[in-house]
């Protein structure tokens, strides 16, 4: 124990300092790691996504019904600008001929003209503001619609190239940036150049030498703005990529919130979010700090220009004796100062637009990337419009998720499945079971070989037709907000109440639905959070059955239900839809052991195939899985029986003691 208070205090201070230094080091390391992660993720995506071309023309296609407002905005802005430029000239005449000349009729005449100009300017400005707001908001609305529609048409390959967070950022932050920039461009972007041109022409008419000052100031200001733009544009690009990472982090965190809480990782997730937020903050501060040089550069140009105009104008007025016939007058100088202020204010407006355009340039490219992305799965020119049956033929199929992938996900799959057959697929995690079945409805396209359904290559069918005939219940069961009946009718919007209930009965969902007070009108929350995992699975199976498909794929879709319910579902499928080809991916052998054919997948290849009895004799891996699951089942049954016996013995002992006490 340290008995010296000073030494103890010093030791405590040193410990606090070390802790602070350590915390800072950890924070910096975390920030660097976050930045490296974002950079690596973005580089891999940039390699996959083509750089957009003709960005402006791509975006402007979304104007559509708002072209009229877009055209009317610059027209009304032009009227406003011209009228405003007339006002200084009328004011100069009022000063020189009315006030200096002591003529009240001219004062009244020019005063009325000024009043009319002001009224016209206000009306034109109001209309310009309204048209600009309608055009920009409509443009943003159409852009969001077009991006969402484009994403809906993507194949899984396209979706893999864009993260969820990236799509969210493009539909929100990026399009909002474009909306603001578009509004400024069609209004202020037209007004400012017009003010500059008209004001300079009128200034040139008053004094050609003085008007040259503007021509000197504008290139200086323009050069400064270009230099600022070149520096900050890459910063904003990085910042928007960080926004993608932030949205991805939030999305992942909310999707896995139960896991986060179960493993007590709240602080870790808060730290991740804070690090990315800090990086966004630092990048924005750096960019805004650079953009802040815009204001002093603008102010400097304005003040120097006004000083030169006042100096040169005063010299000319003194030389002419304020006589319009001999040179400049006081009214001319007033007009020149007004024009100078108009030009400088127009330049300031251009600088504001410039900042918005710099910010929105990266946004424009990112939105254009989505709009220009072409789906890897498209309809053929003359598609087949009928699927004859549910037969499936894999003819030496090889599949890669990406062209850059060295190792294929599926390698040389050669398999024939007759129509109406029941096929089970088992295999370890990562053996490409799901990848195999996702090729059938063309969620992905094969890389090599061919895949036929009903005797024809799946690429020859109309996409909508093919996917109507191939129902897939994916591993991740998703229900949408709405009633149970609404969710089931995703499979068939025209299904009757009787058909809905029959599909639910086959999927063993009708029993628990009938227990709800509102039955099939029971409201389902987003994602199906108010029903259990097993109930979600059964509702998703019923939804697929309503499509009345020729091929039904259950991708580990009964993992959350008990063995008895799993058996009843399979029996219902076998007896109620015997002509439908059924493919069942499962981890439990009991779910597939009565299938007509069982495939054992390993490392993207079919390691073995046959019936349950055949595989028990010929496939060591299948036999090992069977023995392990049978042993575990027997041990569980023995443990349950032992627990029940212990409970019975305890109850008998208690009864004996109570009898003795009596």
Oligomer: single chain
Terminal CA distance reads: 64 Å
Give the rounded overall mean pLDDT.
80
Helix/sheet category: alpha/beta
Residue share in helix: 55-70%
Major β-sheet, in short?
A: 6 strands, mixed
Number of helices in the DSSP assignment: 20
What strand order characterises the main sheet?
Answer: 6-9-10-3-11-12
Shape: elongated
Report on the architecture of this protein:
With 662 residues, the protein is of the alpha/beta class. It is built from 20 helices and 12 strands. The chain has helices at 5-48, 55-60, 67-99, 104-152, 156-161, 164-206, 208-255, 257-262, 266-291, 294-320, 330-372, 433-438, 463-469, 484-488, 497-506, 510-515, 533-545, 563-576, 612-618, 620-661, and strands at 392-399, 410-417, 422-427, 448-453, 456-457, 470-473, 482-483, 523-524, 551-555, 581-585, 597-602, 605-610. The strands form 3 sheets. Strands 6-9-10-3-11-12 form a 6-stranded mixed sheet. The chain has a 4-stranded antiparallel sheet with strand order 2-1-4-5, with no helix packed on it. Strand 9 (551-555), helix 18 (563-576) and strand 10 (581-585) form a beta-alpha-beta unit. Helix 1 (5-48) packs across helix 9 and helix 6 runs antiparallel to helix 7. The longest helix has 49 residues, at 104-152. It is elongated. The model is unreliable at 1-26 (pLDDT under 50).
Give a concise summary.
The chain is an alpha/beta fold. Helix content is about 65%, strand content about 10%.
List keywords for this structure.
662 residues, alpha/beta, six-stranded mixed β-sheet, four-stranded antiparallel β-sheet, 20 helices, 67% helix, elongated, disordered N terminus
